Amino acid sequence: MAYWLFKTEPDAFSIDDLKNAPEQQTFWEGIRNYQARNFLRDEVKVGDSVFIYHSSCKVPAVVGIAKVVKAAEPDPHQFDLSSDYYDAKSSTDSPRWVGVTLAYEQHLRPVTLQAIKANTALTELALKKGGRLSIMPIIEPEWQIILEMSGQS
DNA sequence: GCCAACGTTGGC
DNA sequence: GCCAACGTTGGC
Fold first, then answer.
1. Cα–Cα distance for residue pair A65/A71, rounded to 1 Å
2. Nucleotide nearest to A133 (CA to C1')
3. What is the pLDDT of residues A68-105, one digit of tens each?
4. Which CATH class is domain A3-140?
5. Rounded distance, CA A70 to CA A47, Å?
6. Distance from CA(A5) to C1'(B1), angstroms, rounded
7. A52 within 8 A of A62, measured Cβ to Cβ
8. How far is CA A44 from CA A48, A66, A87, in A?
9. For the whole model, what pTM was predicted?
């Protein structure tokens, strides 16, 4: 059982989109970064908990929680010529990119990047290090701290 | 829209 | 396999 933070641009796909999706689930598509891919493929497991983080928006923040309901499988967009995520160097024999399926759990009172940066108890969080990673691990104590910061625990 | 930080690419 | 150039990300 592990904890993760997934970034998303709310203009493209927000926590509300996840909540409103069929069965409140979505295939987390379009990860095109090797480090993030390796996490998805090797370490993200069914049952893991995920903070949804909104980036590239007015108030970057952790806005909710989702659960992993399906382990990594090939991202079909990499084979779709008409997709922005198309990758000519990937093949169906050995797909380069994968995605997992997430299920909506709950909204949180947003925990802003500003607040996260200001919290000296959060020392390990990759977000603080200006990481551009779209998927990053969170250690359990820091997951709890962020939960408490949102007023839930 | 700027810019810093980081990842990826490609020449050698 | 190094490293410079280039592209992308994402906060401000």
1. 17
2. C9
3. 999 999 999 898 888 888 888 888 888 899 999 999 99
4. alpha beta
5. 9
6. 28
7. yes
8. 7, 13, 23
9. 0.93
